[in-house]
């Protein structure tokens, strides 16, 4: 007896749905994205804190360190607008996904989904849509705040917006995939916050988010260079600071080519990492 | 060639050196309500999780709807409904939103409004899941299990924590699904539930099937001797265990010349049989 004949025999003719098409992963990804966004906005507290967090940090840092930076034609406040925009993108993607997926796994939401014909890709696509929308709103809020309060020059031409656009898309995608990957590390949803927040905090220090890039020790910066955040900060400084400020950079230039390369590599590598390590059940669940 | 929806031969699963399932054989036919009964830790949930495709087996042959659940794809998943024990439906969505969303995953779903009505949640369709009671959430779980119009529905201890009224409502829901032709497999440790709902059942103890059959004849229950109880004229209660209760009653009728005081004939209940089968009979 082959599997084929068994399948045919076990098929109830009255319920034969082999002719009905299974919905595509892309379509279900859109549906899941819409649902994730709806759920996100129903949690008022989460919405307020997600959007307020980088703005509060920007306010703190930009108010404490507001001096002109020597020979750059820019102020520390402007520097922090670029930094906090990058950190905000990573927070809405890496941090929020890393924690929320770990909790969903622990609450068996993932196991339930796995019991339906929903393809795994639809779940990931839904998360990416959520992150794109929340990240975009958060970045917009931060830039409006930065432009009005700290005189940051928003890009004047299409080229500047285009640069901002590709850094945003590559950065948020790479960080989202990294967040999905790290969600498999914590043993339970309860420990997820600590597991995800510590590396993120360390990365922010060694990538020049809180501390000016020319002050961060070289060895730290070298470690930071392996991760997307350092390159997102650098690229956004290129967008928001005058050209003269490139003198502060370790390489003396914005290095857009290298930024694209590293962020692109994280998108591909992050995807592979997710596919290899993603778990639908918590470890205690076998 | 049988028309078995579920076929299990020699199923084994070990956790850390302990046999959770140790050579289980099952055959479940199309359209039947099949119960898996057993004490906690007997291997019921492990068996059902292997049937669902959510747990790997160590050895044995498992075929569910003609395929191995361990390697089956989306098409197979669209034909199998699962009712989970946990309350993992999204708290921030309403009942209607949740059911409608899950309907989109399937190639040929049932009508969401009709399913919500079937599980008796029409009044709660606009409520968020977090506002539902425990019993209502479980009914939402059932709605999500049947929304894809499955051929086979797998339920793991579906009524644990229900109050008696909710259990009765749940039973009639399961019966109406069975009447529509859905094959239903459920685990339970409630004997009345097994007796009321199932066409056939298997008793699992210590990872093995110790008996299989209809609730009424399980474990030789139909052939087991009856006990005739009566009272002597002085009021002393008497009882006699016999394989021929009719003859005993006829003899008594002769002796008493009329009504036999406090006459009662009992056969082992499912609970007696069950306790004997799982080896914890009260001796």
Automatic annotation (TrEMBL), chain A:
Domain ABC transmembrane type-2: 45-281
Annotated localization: Membrane
One Pfam family from the record: ABC2_membrane_3
Any one annotated GO CC term: membrane
Superkingdom: Bacteria
Keyword vocabulary terms for this entry: Membrane, Transmembrane, Transmembrane helix
Molecular function, one GO term: ABC-type transporter activity
Bilayer topology: Multi-pass membrane protein
Main location: membrane
Membrane-spanning parts: 47-66, 78-103, 124-147, 159-182, 194-213, 259-278
Protein name, as recorded: ABC-2 type transport system permease protein
Native organism taxonomy: Bacteria, Bacillati, Actinomycetota, Actinomycetes, Kitasatosporales
From TrEMBL, chain B:
Any one GO cellular component localisation term in the record: plasma membrane
Listed Pfam families: ABC_tran
InterPro entries from the UniProt entry: AAA+_ATPase, ABC_transporter-like_ATP-bd, ABC_transporter-like_CS, ABC_transporter_ATP-binding, P-loop_NTPase
Gene Ontology annotations of biological process type: response to antibiotic
Annotated protein name in UniProt: ABC-type xenobiotic transporter
Catalytic activity, EC: 7.6.2.2
Annotated TM spans: none
Organism whose genome encodes this protein: Actinacidiphila paucisporea
UniProt key word Chaperone: no
PROSITE patterns: ABC_TRANSPORTER_1 (PS00211), ABC_TRANSPORTER_2 (PS50893)
